[in-house]
Amino acid sequence: MSMKLPHAHPPPALGEEEPPPSPPPQRRPRGFASGPAASAGAGAAGPPRRRGEREREREKERTKLRERHRRAITSRMLAGLRQHGNFPLPARADMNDVLAALARAAGWTVHPDGTTFRSSNQPHLPPPPPQLGMFQVAPVETPAFINTLNSYAIGTPLDSQASALQTDDSLSPSSLDSVVADRSIKTENYGNSSSANSLNCMDNDQLLRSSAVLAGDYTKTPYIPVYASLPMGIINSHCQLVDPEGVRAELRHLKSLNVDGVVVDCWWGIVEAWIPRKYEWSGYRDLFGIIKEFKLKVQVVLSFHGCGDTGSGDVLISLPKWIMEIAKENQDIFFTDREGRRSTECLSWGIDKERVLRGRTGIEAYFDFMRSFHMEFRNLSEEGLISAIEIGLGASGELRYPSCPEIMGWKYPGIGEFQCYDRYMQKNLRKSAVSRGHLFWARGPDNAGYYNSRPHETGFFCDGGDYDSFYGRFFLNWYSGVLIDHVDQVLSLATLAFDGAEIVVKVPSIYWWYRTASHAAELTAGFYNPTNRDGYSPVLKMLKKHAVILKLVCYGPQFTVQENDEAFADLEGLTWQVMNTAWDHGLPICIESALPCLDGDMYSQILDTAKPRNDPDRHHASFFSYRQQPPFLLQRDVYFPELRTFVKCMHGEAPQNGEG
Q1: pLDDT digit string (tens) for 239-294?
Q2: Which of 18, 53, 267, 390 could form a disulfide with 504 if both were Cys (CB 3.0 to 4.6 A apart)?
Q3: Pairing relation of β-strands 108-110 and 116-118?
Q4: Does the annotation mark 398 as catalytic?
Q5: In 3-state terms, what secondary structure has residue 360?
Q6: Model confidence over 44-60: pLDDT tens digits?
Q7: Which one of the listed residues 250, 398, 502, 642 is annotated catalytic?
Q8: 226 forms bridges with which residues in the sheet?
């Protein structure tokens, strides 16, 4: 049966000329060209080159979306192998690492150059199971591979594992996604219990058992000094030591635990409280004298921010009174959100170079304070009593914008808000936009939501949102660039003031919304770290320039499993991204616990972070700071035995039998 093709011409008769071929059907224009202007001809639609450029840009965006989807699938697969199979995959694993791990699990030998062959001695048997120490092997759903997967648990000795933390010179977007994956928190006992309930439910027998688990296998590991922070309320607003005998009793207990030293907060709002350039150090001088009696070292924290809760419950530490007097006439010295609300916790970085503080810039005020401290306590530094000085660089003493202030109603896991609407930050933004030739970019995003918004509820942070547009990339580069510039200026003067002393900078752990594309909470805090960009590398490169020590905050199970899942939180992924990036830059790291530790599980988590067992380069933390807070100080009989064992593990010592 023959079929007639539509519009087909019959063959020409003999001697006739073949008719010219019909022109190809015209394609319907797409995009902006499909509007009314397209029907008026090519001339009205614009030059062909411009239309081609627009189409290429659209294709780039579509390719970017496809690549994100592919990387998300890969990251989930890698996370499943790590979590449920305990495969020793590097943080930046690729398919070669996966194939090598599967081959080793099946009993094959895989050399670093890729040579693969079946082992001759045990051709059909997996490697023997390791000594698990304090770790537990996660259950695997496939029974046939249980023994094989167990042999690659986290506790496997280094010589029988692949290098689990090999790093490249560059951090690619796909490598970042390898740590952005779904992880289930294994300690479900924290799911619905508060700290008070945990305290009531724990007895000494439980703590002794967890101490035995905590001991693990940390003998002959590197010695990591341990510092315990003293309560902030021990110095009152007149810079007087409140309870000298109470301080001695506290130091006596800490000395019995064999800690190396203590952490002391020196508050700008107390020392230079009333008159510019008039510094009162008497209370701190008395405190350092008592600490010297116990032969403990001191890490000093120069706090250039305010604090509403000092832990004592009756002391409010604000910025200096003369700063607050200036603010009555010029509130733009504070960070400001889109609604015009001021954050009085710390000064805006917009006044770093503006002489608005009684003839001084913000940077000059910080430098004068640091120089005064050095001149007052130079002898203690020379004697070795003061081992390190931490410089506060933002909200809560951390290097970040005050994007999540609880006083403004923020609650976890809100994304926070950009803090760039004071007069001086807007002036800086306008200057940057003019230099780019786009004056209309001199504004903050108008679709970035509010403090307690979720990323998908905003047009700026949602998947494919404006954060990845041309304007979004310009704004976020500028916003994070102000943070990096502030770091550079303050640390340049700190190095000059302290002349060779160890300087520490604290970087926050903003881990909620880490498993989303935009990393919204990190963006509002000043870290331009979406899925397709490493936002920590430029910051850590600047810290390396000034040869400082990076302090990373280590959180415990502060929120329930359900809350963290809903917030797409990933503390582990963020921690390892920052630590690997720091080590790539040759930057030393120290750890601080943000919450009081309640049992051996939390101590074990800190130990595993401070002393990675399967790191071929033997990286480890420089020291550890323990943030103890009331009412836990009152529970010495419960928590001090646990802390004593933890300190011994940090020191690489074996706890004595019966020691809890």
Answers
A1: 999 999 999 999 998 999 899 999 999 999 999 999 999 999 999 999 999 999 99
A2: 390
A3: antiparallel
A4: yes
A5: strand
A6: 444 556 677 777 777 77
A7: 398
A8: 624
